[in-house]
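Entry for the shared binder. Reason: the reviewer on the internal report wants the predicted structure included alongside the sequence.
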Amino acid sequence: MTVRSNDSAPDLSSKDPNWWRQAVIYQIYPRSFADADGDGLGDLRGITQRLTHLATLGVDALWLSPFYPSELADGGYDVDDYRDVDPRLGTLDDFDALAREAHRLGLKVIVDLVPNHSSHRHAWFAEALAAAPGSPARDRYVFRDGRGEHGELPPTDWQSVFGGSAWQRVPDGQWYLHLFTPEQPDLNWANEQVRADFRTTLRFWSDRGVDGFRVDVAHALVKDLAEPLRDLGDPELSSSEALDRLAAGSHPFYDRDDVHEVYRDWRKILDAYTPPRMAVAEAWVPGVRRALYARPDELGQAFNFEYLQGGWDAARLREIITGSLADAHAAGASATWVLSNHDVVRHATRLVLPPGTDTDAWLLAGGHAPAVDAEAGLRRARAATLLMLALPGSAYLYQGEELGLPEVADLPTEVLQDPIWEQTGHVRKGRDGCRVPLPWTTEGPSYGFGDSGAWLPQPPGFAAYAVEAQDGAEGSTLELYRTALRLRRKLLAGEELHWAADTPAGVLRFDRSDTWRCVTNLSAEPVDLPAGEVLLTSAPLADGRLGPDTTAWLGR
C-alpha cells in the first residue's frame, strides 16, 4: 500500500441537506457487531461503545439493520413493534444514547424500515386472527379464501422468497399472504390505517434524531389484489429477478406503479424536517425502474445490486457503472455502490469464486467445492473497494469488510439460524455465514465481541482479522480503509467520471476530476500506470507497474 502523507481533511458539514449524495455509510447488523451485556447477542449499548471505531474509520453514517422487538424468524426483519427496541438489544433510552453519541462523533444515523410485512406477533395480526373473515382487522393484511371444493388450496400459485407457497392457512379456513416466512404476514397497503401508521413511524424516529431510512423490499408494498387474483403460471416469476420477463409494472406484487404514491407521500414527511431526512430503497428491479424510487420527490436513492452482482469482469463492470450513473442522473439522484451486505456472500470470498458458481451448493459443501484462495480473495476485495470508493455517489460498507473478513462457509448445520435453511428443506444454508459476529481482539471467548460466546460461532482464523491485530499495522486492510476514506474526503469533486481512451483489456481507468484518477487492473498481467503521483494503491506496485487485481489512485 502506498499513500501520500496528508492528515488534513475537510469537514463535511452535518447541516448539508445533500450530505448523503456522496457519503460512505456503514451497515451494522446489531446482533453481530458488539455485545455489551455478555449474553452472546449484539446490542445497542455494544454499538455505542464501539462508535469510535466508525469515527476513526472515517465513514459519514451508520445504518442499523432492524433492532425492533422480534422473534428472529428472519433475523429481525419480522417486526413485532415498529416503534420500540427488542429488550434483548436494549431500550429506547439506549437508542437515544446511541444517536446522541453518533451525532457527537459527527456520524449520521440511518435505521431500517420494514413496511412490506409485520411479524405474526404484531398486535394487529393477533387481532386479525381473532376477528372474522371480512373484518376491518383482517383488511390490514391480505386474507383470502382458498381454492378447491373446500378452500383447501392456496388462493394463487405465488411462491415465497424462501421457498414454498406464499400463502398460509389459518384455523377458520382462510389464507394469508406472506412473501417471506409464514411468520411475516404481508400488510395491505390499500388500507389507509396501514399507511397512516407508517407515517407515524417515520415521524417517531425522525423526532428522535434519525437522519434517514433504509426501506426494506421497497418494491413489494403495493399489490394487485383485484378479484380474481392472478396466477403467475411459472413459479420462477415469483422472484424479483424475473421482473425483466414481464411488462413493466405488470407483476401482481412486485414493482407496481402505484407503489410510488406511497413514497411521494413519505417524501413530504421527510422534507418537513431540517435538514430533510434521507431514504434509500432496497428495490430488486431493473435499473431503469429502480431509478424511479430514487427520484427527488420519492426516496431519493436506491441500492444498485447490479454492481454487487457484476463479478470481476472489467467489461461488465464498466457497462454497469456507466448505466448506473446514467440512470441515477436521469432520476436526479446520486448513484449507490455496495459490495457486501447481510444477505450475500462476503465479497472477499465471492469475488474469487469461478463465474457461474452456485453459491447455495458451494455453501452446502462447506465452502470447499470449489476451494477458495483466501489470499487471492483478499487482494481482489481490496482492489474492488478502492474502485468502489473512487466512483461518484454513495458507498455502502458492510460491517467487517474493513477487516477483510471472508465468508464463514463451514458453519455446522446445527447452529444455523437463517430461516432459509428450514424453509427450503435443508437445500440452502442461507445467510448466516456473512452474519458471524465481528472479532475485535485477538483473544477471548468471542474475540472481544462480548464477555462470553457469540450467537454464531467464530472460526479460529478470525483472530488474525481482529481490529486489535490490524490497528496501526502498515498494509493491513483496516488501515487501507482508513487511509482511503480520509483521502476520498479530500478528493471528492462533482458526481461524474470520464473513462480514459485506449485502456488495455481487463483494465478500468477513469478520471474523477482534473485532480485525480483511478486505475484498476482486473487482468492477469501487470500494466503500466499513466502519468501522475501515486496517492494510494490496494497492493504494492511491482517495479512501478500495477499488478493483477490491484487498484491505484493517482493525482493528475
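Summary line for the report: The longest strand covers residues 108-113.
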